[in-house]
């Protein structure tokens, strides 16, 4: 009997899945792969029920003769392992980012004469509703909050990009590329104080108040599912910080990063060009501990950001602070630098990792931007944040268009560079 393989990446079996099974049965014995939690978490189909429950659910479908685990989003490994004669899938994978997965499966099958069967994708009202329901659940605070913690051990390095609106949130959520024959996406989002302030035309000095910052968080949350890392600036007064932690945790934000500065905060990239004061170790530890104590779940992370290198206080000061902040309960350490070369960041990572193998390290390579994700991962970094690139790319593009409209007294000349009207009006999905 021929072997027919399909993979389910779902929490609910609907008629589309049954249709695939029935079609598969016409070709031979049906083997269904259940996508692992790790692959589901990374590729945005956040599992709502456990892996064991999904295995059981699939094994109970009539006509399924075997259930196996598919570890990777890609089919290569599972094809090599079970050598199916056919791989059957909805034809939705002939388009969009899934096409890469299909092409790779096809290449793996071709090696021994296996074939792909594309079945017309079932997309009726009922299936749409079930799909929307699963997507909505993934947006709920209890699911999205823990996603950063879950991702950390699963990713070689968690990649976060700056977002400051629903639209930039959608870019972070949806952008997918094929790189080195594999799909790649951002894993998380960073709500930068610099960009959240800049888009409001305000300086990055903790002037945009927390109510306004939370409004931005809410706009982003409404249209995304990826975990959010919130730039909490200094965290403010301890008495206020505990309220911020509670609110962010309740909303479903995954982490806050607070920096060890006090008084009027200026952006770190000014370094010592402006007056900035570093907090004492004791006071900052008190803030971290107060935040940890107030949390209601184990999901939310408080990450301590060390400004010693920015403020030229030396490596030993940075390490001493890292030790103290971890002891006070910090769930991660962010080390920042404004040097062009990554030397001091790598040195910190090397020394910190000698004494602490586990605490996640976060870096923001804005200045030292030649370093690659692989090099950072190799140095023991767990989260890389691209902290301001979307804002910095949008502003010059908008400014140039404004200049040219003024120069030409009309918009014809800029039109070529603009997104077509038909694309912008359908950019955002309606619910
Ligand atoms: C931000 O993005 O607001 C940051 C990172 O805090 S930096 O601008 O490099 O200080
Ligand atoms: Mg900031």
Summarize the SSE layout with pairings.
Blueprint: E1 3-8, H1 15-25, E2 29-35, H2 37-42, H3 51-59, E3 66-70, H4 76-82, E4 86-90, H5 98-110, E5 115-119, H6 125-138, H7 141-144, H8 147-151, E6 158-162, H9 166-174, E7 176-179, E8 182-185, E9 188-191, H10 193-198, H11 210-223, E10 228-231, H12 238-251, E11 255-259, E12 261-262, E13 277-278, H13 281-294, E14 301-306, H14 315-327, E15 332-335, H15 343-355, E16 361-363, H16 373-378, E17 383-386, H17 389-408, H18 421-425
Parallel strand pairs: 1-2, 1-4, 2-3, 4-5, 6-9, 6-17, 9-10, 10-11, 11-14, 14-15, 15-16, 16-17
Antiparallel strand pairs: 7-8, 12-13
Helix pairs in contact: 9-11, 12-13, 13-14, 14-15
The structure holds sulfopyruvate and magnesium ion.
What does the model show?
Helix content is about 40%, strand content about 15%. It has about 425 residues and is α/β, with parallel strands linked by helices. It has an eight-stranded parallel beta barrel with strand order 6-9-10-11-14-15-16-17, surrounded by seven helices. A five-stranded parallel sheet has the order 3-2-1-4-5, with helices on both faces. The protein has a two-stranded antiparallel ribbon with strand order 7-8. Strand 16 (about 360-365), helix 16 (about 375-380) and strand 17 (about 385) form a beta-alpha-beta unit. Helix 12 (about 240-250) packs parallel to helix 13 (about 280-295) and helix 14 (about 315-325) packs across helix 15 (about 345-355). The chain is globular and about 75 Å long. The two termini are about 45 Å apart. The model has no long low-confidence stretch (mean pLDDT about 95). Bound molecules: sulfopyruvate and magnesium ion (MG). Magnesium ion binds near residues 192, 193, 204, 231 and 233.
